Inverse folding.
């Protein structure tokens, strides 16, 4: 549980940094875009990604 909790905190920190970069530069492409099959770039700016 401690390991998965630490991974969750790390993932949240990375997502927060990506959000700050996206606010600074709207053309920023998050590193989670792994091609057309797995992509979070189109999801984040949407209403569902703005939670």
């Amino acid at each position: 549980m401690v390991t998965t909790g630490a991974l969750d905190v790390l993932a949240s920190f990375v997502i927060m940094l990506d959000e700050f970069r996206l606010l600074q530069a709207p053309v920023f492409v998050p590193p989670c875009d792994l091609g057309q099959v797995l992509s979070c770039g189109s999801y984040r700016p949407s209403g569902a990604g703005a939670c």
Observations:
- Residues 2-50 form one domain.
- The chain has a mean pLDDT of 74.
- The two ends are 26 Å apart (CA to CA).
- The first helix runs from residue 2 to 24.
